[in-house]
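Batch manifest line 612
LIGAND: adenosine-5'-diphosphate
JOB: complex structure
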Amino acid sequence: MTNRKPLLDDRKETAVTVARTGLPALVARHAEHTPHALAVADGDTTLTYAQLAGAARRLAAHLHEQGVRPGDFVALLMPRSARTVVAQLALWWTGAACVPLDPAHPGPRTAAMLEDSGATLTVGDSKLLEAAGTPGATLALPGDEQLADAEMPGDGPGPDDTAFVMFTSGSTGRPKGVAIHHGAIAELVTDPDYVTVTARDRVLLHSPATFDGSTFEVWSALANGAAVVVCTTERPSFEDLAKEVERHGVTVAFFTTALFHQLAARRSRVFSLLRTVVVGGEAMAAQHARAVLRAFPWVELVNGYGPTEATTFATTHRVTDADCDGPVPIGRPMAGATAHILDEAFLPVTDGAQGELWIGGSRLAHGYTRQPELTAERFVDHPTLGRLYRTGDLVSARPDGVLDFHGRTDDQVKVRGFRIEPGEIEHALREQPDVDDAAVTVRRPTPDDARLAAFVVAAPGPVPRPDALLGRLTALLPAHLVPAELTVVDRLPLTTSGKVDRRALADLATAAETIGAAEPLTPLQQAVAEVWSRSLGCEVTRPDADFLDLGGHSLLALVVAEELREDLGVELSLPDFFTAPTVAGHAALVERALLAAHTDLHPDAPKDTDGH
Ligand code: ADP
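JOB STATUS: finished
ARTIFACT:
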């Protein structure tokens, strides 16, 4: 039996109507109807809808004066703040598309993104622009107080105009820029039926602007007359997130699956404050979902599935306790998306069978910027089903049309919410003169952790040192693409068909930490080492043990910071964390913080010699 019809295609009339407008028109509509409603708050700045529209209009007029025209692609480099939202809106009001850049990315990566997106100008924060040494034309954005009131330079974008270019990992070694149009985002968020967002809600913006989760965070709020609460801390700790939610009365938040799992494992108090939690990026673990639903039964928990190419989410599922007996489903297609499960001959599979998920509908991206061949390969005109995107995801449908996710048909992996083509990292490694061949895989030292493990075959000559090789990669690739571990091997294991045997690699990739003769730890170092051991999933016995050498990464840093807070009552900021990422370094920071707290409580107590 075959199922040639899309599994669900009941777009709502409203969504279809809004899909015919660009995003600035949605803000203009609220500015007219509810001018005094809160639109954006970031701790320093609050903007009502009228103020947001006014500031964006003034900045748009300025950008127009500076030569920005409809159809231009303009890169944006700014720290996350209320001004980021103003700048995005202003760019769109001139008719330009926005290419978000990440200040943390290395120069060559940013240069490649600029080139592939076709951006002709980078605008943003003057200090960041200077520090990044962005190639090509740049323009520092003036503050609102420097701008005169102005009329809108044009009509603003239409639904088919590109809003964003979002980059994802590319297996050939170059990131792919996905062009996402206004109508697709408008349809994703306006009057959504998969999540409750009303004008009274406050939605947290904490994702990097280069990540399509941020599209949901900003636009689920602004499309519905709600407020965006911007977390300006670049890398917020779990405690920073909870405080932000508490301080601003946030009601709706999006978390990557990896972050959700960590928050769920600690029964974070964010869940007691939030009404709605949307999670996406990787398969949701049933035990974490169940723990949250049981401890915080009021939480509306939504599993959102979708590739960037289908505009953030394509299917969604409202998770209930009953879903948590097996793998949590990814749900049904939402407005603007259709789902088709096809076999290798592009025919629908029999009911209930596994097959590859192909997504259709009005929210599909227009394609990859400047990569027509790749676009043609992944976005295909199906003879009967229309234009479809080939996801590479294996799914099956339940009798009621709810989809289950079963993994990938290719090597693509997810690590901490980042989509990664091992091929991109392998390519960067093979480009190194002392490397002959390379393979990259994922290792899971604990169920909630995933790390990239690289294996290289050295070129003839001196064998490269792993830390030196990884250091060179850091200058080329963003942090999430730099492997946590690298091992030099004589040859890569191959399958009988001659391909790299990734399963064998995963087995090879065991914690290769050799622990030498250990100096004794002080009691405080011992306490820190225990926290590290738990989080890193390996025994930590040396005061000079280095967090990054042991496979530590940003999410684990959050875990360690949170556990140090819980166990020792000391809050380490992430910048502090990484200035001294050894057991001894952390113990010294903890000691200093404890002494400072002690002298605050007992002003007469003797101070330590540094005067802290
Ligand atoms: P997003 O940022 O929306 O996760 P990406 O383009 O980075 O989108 O990654 C898309 C891929 O991530 C999907 O093709 C799928 O493999 C995986 N993925 C995303 N969400 C889920 C989910 N809820 N459950 C399982 N896998 C998911």
